[in-house]
Specification:
The protein is an alpha/beta fold and 383 residues long. The protein is built from 18 helices and twelve strands. Helix 1 (6-16) packs across helix 7 (154-177), helix 6 (127-133) crosses helix 7 (154-177) and helix 10 (240-249) packs across helix 14.
């Protein structure tokens, strides 16, 4: 019972690993994601990633009849995922207390901008707002430019992952207690939780982490370095032994033997100078030359992949991360593979996202509705 990104991404992962996921969509229009970005035959290509392995049921949750059908479905459910603004389900009589009274084992994953409690709980919140409040936007970009955004909806995705983790923890707890519980995921908290040492550094030293472009101050050397053709190669030489191998690969025995650079704290004091020395070496070489030298020296390095690079990469192919599905018109569409890889019970998917309401009749018949009742619900706009 969610739209767009965070809730549906959470349910997508559950679906990939075998859950029977029923997605509730508003009649006539469906999830707004169906019309986001590039469309083919009127449907977003994104939809076929976000909604694979799901069954689509149209249901107007604002109507009492729709709420009654939802309750019947939830009575049978292990997990309910929703990302409405807090209080919405309560207005519809679908609060956790009522639902758990008929399904004591129900796990409800609630994803919202600010969480189910606190003074901001009623505010609307998208992933980008969570990124801003969680501290990510402030440190993303270069110092001379306004805060930048990550190129994907990372706040929503992080929250979706926490939703899955919370659901699995709750299911495991249910094995012991027999009871379900609420998993309360806030977008801003999901972002804040991955901000590493930002809080203790501020608390202990008053340090406010700022935008620093491609480097991470205090961890050296790791950056994107310019090559002779104008492209960049990312080199992560910040491990002590790795740094020494990097220096030897560059022919800089002087740096490799400098005791003041042997550990990270010493390198961090000379980070800008050190990056300049490395880039002086990479600027005289092509990306292929740099990467070959790094590979030979066992130093982590990579070109900065575009989607064109990803699709052509042998490792992506070997790990089944570039998959194909068949669309309704018979054409083939590349989509990302499944993460993580499980040895005994791997995740999988058969095809892309369902048509709007494709499984409404099927699911409602399983609840006892006959053809006449289904026709009546359609006529009244409930489904």
């Amino acid at each position: 019972m969610g739209a767009l990104i965070a809730g549906p991404f959470c349910a997508k992962i559950l679906a990939e690993f075998g859950a029977d996921v029923v997605k509730i969509e508003p009649p006539g229009v469906g999830d707004a994601l169906r019309k986001w970005r590039y469309l083919k035959d009127g449907t977003s290509l994104w939809w076929h990633v976000q909604s694979r392995n799901k069954r689509s049921v149209t249901l107007d949750l604002r109507k009492p009849e729709g709420q009654a059908i939802a309750r019947k479905l939830i009575e049978r459910a292990d997990i309910l995922v929703e990302n409405f603004r807090p209080g919405t389900l309560e207005q519809w009589g679908l609060d956790y207390e009522s639902l758990s009274s008929v399904n004591a084992g129900l796990v409800m994953v609630r994803i919202s901008g600010y969480g189910q409690t606190g003074p901001y709980r009623h505010r609307p919140g998208f992933g980008v707002i969570g990124e801003a409040m969680g501290g990510l936007r402030y440190v993303t970009g270069t110092p001379d430019r306004p805060p930048s955004r990550v190129g994907v909806s990372i706040g929503d995705t992080l929250s979706a992952l926490y939703g899955v983790i919370g659901a699995m923890f709750a299911i495991e707890a249910r094995h012991r207690t027999g009871k379900g519980q609420v998993v309360d995921v806030a977008l801003y908290e999901s972002v804040f939780s991955v901000m590493e040492s930002m809080l203790p550094e501020f608390d202990a030293f008053g340090v406010v982490r700022e935008r620093t472009g491609s480097i991470l101050p205090g961890i050296a050397p790791t950056s994107a370095y310019l090559c002779s053709d104008g492209s960049f190669v990312l080199i992560a030489g910040n491990g002590d032994s790795i740094f020494k191998r990097l220096c030897l690969a560059m022919g800089r025995d002087d740096l490799a033997g400098d005791a003041s650079l042997a550990q990270n704290d010493g390198r961090a004091l000379r980070q800008q100078w050190l990056d300049g020395e490395i880039e002086a070496w990479t600027r005289a070489r092509s990306p292929d030359e740099v990467l070959a030298a790094m590979d030979k020296a066992d130093v982590p390095a990579s070109k900065i992949y575009s989607i064109r690079d990803i699709v052509a990469d042998a490792h992506y192919a070997a790990r089944a991360m570039i998959r194909e599905i068949t669309l309704a018109d018979g054409s083939r569409l590349k989509v990302p593979g499944v993460v993580p890889k499980l040895s005994d019970t791997p995740g999988d998917f058969d095809d892309g996202g369902p048509k709007l309401g494709e499984h409404t009749a099927e699911v409602l018949r399983s609840l006892g509705y006959d053809d006449a009742a289904l026709a009546d619900l359609r006529q009244r706009g409930v489904t």
